[in-house]
Design brief:
281 residues, alpha+beta, Immunoglobulin-like, C8orf32 fold, 2 domains, four-stranded antiparallel β-sheet, 16 strands, 38% strand
């Protein structure tokens, strides 16, 4: 699937600042970046680097004087997703057999306090035998019981807050899904992405659950087709994959984000309660 993604960020710089951005499309075996262009005005020296054991790409730059800054990024990306058939028949992977790099996604994290949601998760979903069916039930519950309300949360809102307030945005939906999965001993991780058909256009957040030895993608908001996502970064929660982290006085004045399909025969893919297969990127 070929998609074109773009974003434009306009900032006001009031004092010397160093910024680290996470807006570049992820490069990996299942996501090829065919072409891309990053333009900063005024022109600055930009460093690109990766962090950890994944393909998450950052860009870092420094501005030493007061100015306005425009950042423009555009990329053509080809995604390769796999439909995992008969996933309801897949046996769960015991913790004792999980690869070492998966274990970290079982632990509670800053925004995903899975240890505080064990009783709730077991009561609501513990009776379901299959892990894929459990996660489908989790996303169905979040969709039906948590209202999507723009501006209803902030940078301090956690999964525990979301289940209490029962309102949030995509970031909160993903954190709650992750926390409930981990509470049921299903590894889960957060990712940011560009999303086709997302309305209004913006950066999007979803999550993946580790089922049968594969990372399966889920989106409790149901705001974008699962096969129309272009990953930017993957982490334990939003702490690891913030779109922008700045040290100094900088304020965002305007932002535009988009994702367009370059193939006319695009057929949206969503899960429902009777789904028998999962989507793995």
């Amino acid at each position: 699937m070929k998609l074109q993604v773009y974003c434009e960020l306009n900032y006001q710089i009031s004092s010397p600042v160093t910024s680290i951005l996470s807006i570049l499309a992820l490069k990996g075996p299942k996501q090829n970046v065919l072409a891309e262009n990053l333009l900063l005005t005024p022109q600055l020296q930009v460093e690109e680097f990766t962090s950890g054991n994944n393909d998450h790409r950052f860009v870092r730059f420094e501005i030493k004087k007061e100015t306005t800054l425009n950042i423009s990024y555009k990329a053509t990306v080809e995604t390769h997703y796999e439909e995992v058939a008969n996933i309801l028949m897949v046996e769960p992977v015991p913790v004792a057999q999980m690869p070492a790099d998966i274990i970290t996604y079982l632990f509670p994290s800053r925004y995903c306090q899975s240890d505080q949601l064990v009783r709730f998760a077991q009561h609501r979903f513990g009776h379901i035998d299959n892990d894929f069916a459990k996660v489908i039930a989790i996303t169905d519950w979040i969709y039906k019981n948590v209202e999507y309300v723009s501006g209803s949360s902030d940078a301090q809102t956690s999964a525990y807050d979301t289940i209490t307030e029962q309102a949030g945005v995509c970031r909160d939906f993903a954190h709650l899904g992750i926390a409930l999965c981990r509470a049921l001993t299903i590894p889960a991780r957060y990712f940011t992405c560009y999303a086709f058909k997302l309305d209004p256009p913006d950066f999007h957040a979803c999550f993946e659950a580790y089922i049968g030895g594969k990372w399966i993608v889920f989106d409790a908001t149901r705001l974008a087709p699962l096969n129309g996502l272009v990953k930017i970064a993957v982490g334990r929660d939003a702490v690891d994959v913030s779109v922008a982290t700045s040290y100094g006085s900088i304020s965002l004045k305007n932002m535009q984000v988009g994702c367009e399909a370059l193939e006319k025969d695009f057929v949206p893919f969503y899960y429902n309660s009777s789904s028998q297969s999962g989507l793995s990127y």
